[in-house]
Amino acid sequence: MTRYRFGGGIADYVVSRGDSGELTLAGNVPVTFWSAESGGAQYTDLLDRTGTPIPDGVVSSSATGAIPAFGTGPDGVRAMWASASPTGDGQRCLITTTDLGETAGDLEDRIAVLESRLTGVGRLTAGPVEPEGSAVGDVWFDTSAPTGGNPVTYRASGGAAVRSASLVCPLPVGIEPGDYLIALMVYSSTSGETMTAQPDWAQLVPTQQFGGDTTATVYGKVYAAGDAALSWTLSVPVGATAAIVAYANAAADVVVGPAAARTTTTSVTDAPSLTTTEPDALVACLYAVKNSGTPAATDPVGTVRRIFQAGAGTSAVPSALVCDFSQPVPGPTGQRSAVIGPDSNNGLGVQIALRRRA
User: Higher-confidence residue: 192 or 77?
Assistant: First the structure.
């Protein structure tokens, strides 16, 4: 390690107080050095300017009270507490190395060398999501919150319903970059209506028609700052409903269970079981139904409702329900059934498991 020089500074003097309170410089006073303002250990490993050990680590002030440039302190010590007492009694004052200026200059030189070596680095990016189109030499600083030990949690949800040829569903308020979004869209398709795909979303459940007059699909993606609202264009004006749910700390590789389409007349729609492979998963249950009247929903047992987006109008009303539950232990999740009435001859249910982001 490095030994640093002490003494000889503009403030390095021993001062005493006279009987009348006046301050005077105290000459020929033994000075000891300590590791703390009170208590602590005495530094005795001091060397004079020739490198010779100073007996007992005691330095005497000059006739004018100055603490001379006596040499160096112990290895790695840049500051000591000085006492005008062999035993360290009374007030102690801090004395710092006179090498601070040179040390600061050396640090500046080292930083300049490091900066010169960074001239070959490419694009520097800071953000919670890795940028696209990275090239050799690019550096990405991941600013996302550490997820080690953090479970997948519900963040926010939002929805929209129209009777139109287009549907725009705003992203939920309060979501953050890195959140995983699940979007469920259902619409009336009595005459073979079609809709546009979402190019920047992964289709988790293929578009499928059920009950002869209802179509639904499910999308997913990792949210990035600046992502726009989700929108669909339909071939003709119809009733259409969408719901989006956001989850924090979730990995992008979700597990999608089998989708069950119902064509029998009832108000019960099932989401079949899936099997999780990691502990502490969060399982979302999604249901799409079209009813002949104003819909009402009862959540599956053991789940928490995140959104029930009822459709517009009072007949041929498509609705979307999303609930979720925790799955602490890997294994089958079990079938989860929702009740969305009045009775209808169509319904679609599916479970999607989310695991912690690495």
Answer: 77
Q: Taking a C-beta distance cutoff of 8 angstroms, is the pair 41, 79 a contact?
A: no
> At residue 154, does pLDDT exceed 60?
yes
Measuring CA to CA, which residue among 250, 251, 232, 249 is closest to residue 241? 232
Q: Which residues pair with 291 in a beta bridge?
A: 317
Both tokens of 37, joined, read 């303002």
CA pair distance 112, 108, nearest whole angstrom: 6
pLDDT on residue 348? 94
Q: What is the DSSP string of 156-220?
A: EEEEEEEEEEEEEEPPPTT--TT-EEEEEEEEE-TT---B---TTSEEEEEEEEETTTEEEEEEE
- Rounded CA separation 169/161 (Å): 8
Neighbours of 87 (CB within 10 A): 8
Query: What tokens does 219 get?
Result: 């999308």
The residue among 273, 190, 279 whose CA lies nearest residue 236 is 190
Instruction: Give residue 191's pLDDT.
Output: 63
CB-count exposure of residue 140 (10 Å: 0-12, 13-18, 19+): middle
pTM over the 0.90 mark:
no
